[in-house]
Amino acid sequence: MRTLLARPELSAAFLRRLAAKAALIERDPDKKGAAARIYASSRQAQWFKPVTDALKQMAGPGERCMICSGSESSQVEHFRPKAAFPLMAMVWANFLWICGICNQSKGDRFPPDTEDGELLIDPTNENVWDFFFVDQFGNLTERWRPDLNDIDPRAHITITIFSLDRDALQESRQLRLEDLKEKARDAINLLASGRISAADLRERISRWRLQPFQPDVTDYFLHGPGRLEEPFAELLDRAGR
Amino acid sequence: MYVKSITLDSIRGFKKLEFNFQRPDHSYAGWTVFLGGNASGKSTLLRSIALAVIGPDAGRLLLGNPESWRGWMHADDRRAEVKATLTWDPHFDRFKTKGASPGIFFDAGVRFALEGKDGGDNGDRQGGELPTLRAVEKRIAGTRVLTVIRGPWEPNALGWFSAGYGPMRRLTGSSSESLRFSLDQSCVSRFVTLFREDAALSESEAWLKTNHSRWLESQKPELKELLDRVTALLSDNLLPQGMRISKTTVDHVFVQDARNVELPMRDISDGCRGIYATVLDLVHGMFSVYGIEGLFGEDTSGRPIVNMPGVVLIDEIEAHLHPAWQRDIPEWFKLHFPKVQFFVTTHSPLVAQAADPNGVFLLPSPADLNSEPRPLEDDEIERLRLGRAEKTLLGVAFGLKSVRSRWANAQIGKYKRLNAKAKSGASLSGDEATELKGLEKQMEIAFEPVLSDSTPLGSSLSDAASVVSAPRAN
Fold first, then answer.
1. Chain-wide mean pLDDT for chain B?
2. Ramachandran assignment for B303, one of left (phi > 0), alpha (psi -120 to 50 degrees), beta (any other)
3. Domains of chain B, first to last
4. How many A/B residue pairs have CB atoms within 8 Å?
5. Residues 6+ apart with CB under 8 A from B444
6. Is B391 on the interface with A (CB under 8 A)?
7. How far apart are the first and last CA of chain B?
8. Which residues in B lie closer than 8 A to residue A133 (C-beta atoms)?
9. Which of A22, B14, B78, B445 would staple A90 via disulfide (CB 3.0–4.6 Å)?
10. Over B72-108, what HEC string results?
11. Do A174 and B426 touch (CB under 8 A)?
């Protein structure tokens, strides 16, 4: 999970087209079947391209999965599954861009399977770092909720449903974090010895943030709450932000 | 002969399966792997290929009691078919009797069928009807065209080598019934262990010892050559710890290890015996099919090879093998049988890594209703061939979420929880603080980078494989 760009506005004409499809689903006695059919044919169609384009733009460089930030993504995902929520099958706000592993892991689940009181965290709609942090080993970790005297239940269920604790992800987050720490320390030293300027440092930092390798880690440590941890606190302090 | 493709229609758990085994360069020899969880149908697939290659007559013998054949048919279907497209080489494979030879490809298929009339006319004997196993025939203008019975299915086939091995590849201990099959002169003997768990591969060692006795008696040079070639092959780094064949007597084949300890083959470890028995059986089978002329050769670096083509099926090839050996044994087979098309099933990423292009096929678990049997894509195979075994286990081919133990993951879970609490600023109890300290130490080990130079086991364990496969210094 990471902070994403705001969901772009799609044109009014395009939204009308989506709404027309949604109306078709609503009129069908077999809403679930209609949702699957209409979505499948639309997904293949040329007119649907603004959706994938906008989602890729939101996902940022490398078009990484909006959920795990690990793999290259290749699928449009319905945050609310179209099997349980056929009327959401053609709604722009319900579309995410996620990888096959996360998608397969989630399947058709959407606990507690009602529209109200959803448990899964929608990274396009919520501040993900209110729910998670990244630890020194690259584990995406649920935040502690003193009011519940427990870890955050929504964060926990999101990690479970998408298998965000899988070995492969932890390992790449850890690699990314180690790499980022090394880059930060080097840059601090270069600045201290006068070989680069604060402006150079700022430019480096924005370049790191654009690298499409576990962007969740860069987001957390260079932009999110992790910026208060060393060596990133010193780095950002010296860069003058 | 090679298998170009296979189609299963309503065979056991497979409603439909279609695999094409041609490699991107249009060749067939090499390593092809079937992956899937337990009960995904890997053994069924191997046996189906076997049935298509050896035909219904040999198949009936190996399958035994027809009362069990109903299980070969998917759910309530009344027929189930295996069809293979075979390819052949006139240089090695001959058709019997006169008749036109087919082109490069021809079909071979068998069908299980309930041939009685549909419906309940057999009253209380419902379900008592026994399936038949017959050839799938093709008719051209009313004439029965069945090329395959003059080729690979012919009882005394000329060429057309094929063999199949089940997961139990023992040297001794056949039941008397299985022993009967092992003595069969046709291809049946080469498939007994694939179909019957009570079979052993004792005949091939008996064959070697008999030839030894014959040579003692007759001193014929061709027998000497056979014995020497077989010994050289079995001694060419096949067995671990530098074990090699030291002598053959009328009663035993002996091996000697690096410490000069000499043992009869039947007293060495299970893994060694299984591999020895399989290789010996392959050589024996190829010898009976092709004769000695051109059977043995050397590769460019002078290592002994068996230079004839054929189809070899091996179920769970890694049984009893140390991981280092699992990694090396496929390469050994590929190097020493360069013209053989191997089909193996495995649960080992180390065995799967040896797959050749277009050589990995996935069978979904029976519980997974959304997936179909499929070949791995080119990029997926490249990842498997080039990657670490651990990554392969985490990848699409094996699909593990974690390669740590459940206990280790539970410790990680405890650490994350206490660490979250500590980070939130909530105060930890004395016990909790102590526990977190202990867990932090464990995490340092759990998340130690894989390629770290400081891995303490790195040097002492070095590579168990070096014991296994390093060329012998002379």
1. 87
2. beta
3. 2-196+309-394 (3.40.50.300), 201-306 (no CATH), 406-467 (no CATH)
4. 51
5. none
6. yes
7. 38
8. 420, 423
9. A22
10. HECCCCCEEEEEEEEECCCCCCECCCCCCCCCCEEEE
11. no
Task: Report the candidate in A140, A167, A163 with the shortest Cα–Cα distance to residue B402.
Answer: A167
CA B143 to chain centroid: 38
The answer to whether residue B455 scores a pLDDT higher than 50 is no
CB atoms within 10 A of CB A14: 17
Which chain A residue lies closest to B443 (C-alpha atoms)? A137
**A108 Cβ under 8 Å from any chain B Cβ:** no
Distance CA B133, CA B63 (A): 10
Question: Does the CB of A135 have a partner CB in chain B at under 8 Å?
Answer: yes
CB B345 within 8 A of CB B362: no
Nearest to A174 among B404, B419, B447 (CB): B447
Domain boundaries defined on chain A: 12-107, 173-241
ipTM for the assembly:
0.89
Query: In Å, how far is A142's CA from the nearest CA of chain B?
Result: 7
pLDDT at B118: 53
SS3 A89: coil
Could you tell me if A137 lies within 8 Å of chain B, comparing CB atoms?
yes
Q: Any residues with CB less than 8 A from the CB of B210 and at least 6 apart, and which?
A: none
* Residue type at position B315: D
Cβ pair B105, B170 in contact under 8 A: no
Give the number of residues written for chain B.
474
Helix (H), strand (E) at residue A98: strand A95-98
Q: Provide, as residue numbers in chain B, all residues whose Cβ is less than 8 Å from the Cβ of A171.
A: 450
| Distance separating alpha carbons of residues B277 and B285, to the nearest angstrom | 12
**Test mutation, B365, B369, B401, B406, chain A, max A CBs within 10 A:** B401
B420 CB within 8 Å of a chain A CB: yes
**CA distance, residue B322 to nearest chain A CA (Å):** 25
Count CB atoms within 10 A of the CB of residue A47. Answer: 10
Whole-angstrom Cα distance, residue B448 to residue A137?
9
**CA atoms of B419 and A21, how far apart (whole Å):** 48
Q: Could you tell me the mean pLDDT of each successive run of 10 residues in chain A, 241 residues long?
A: 92 94 94 93 92 93 92 82 90 92 82 68 93 96 95 94 92 94 95 92 94 94 95 93 55
- Predicted TM-score (pTM) of the model is 0.83
Residues of chain A contacting residue B420, judged by C-beta atoms under 8 Å apart: 133, 141-144, 151
Ordered alpha helix ranges (H), B10-154:
42-63
DSSP assignment letter at B453: T
Contact: B419, A178; criterion CB under 8 Å:
no
* Cα gap B338→B307, rounded to integer Å: 7
Smallest CA-to-CA distance from B158 within B89, B64, B57, B220 is with B89
Task: Please give the full DSSP string across B388-429, using - where no structure is assigned.
Answer: -HHHHHHSTTT--S-SS-HHHHHHHHHHHHHHHHHHTTPPPP
**Structure tokens of A135?**
């630890």
CA distance A16 to B381: 44
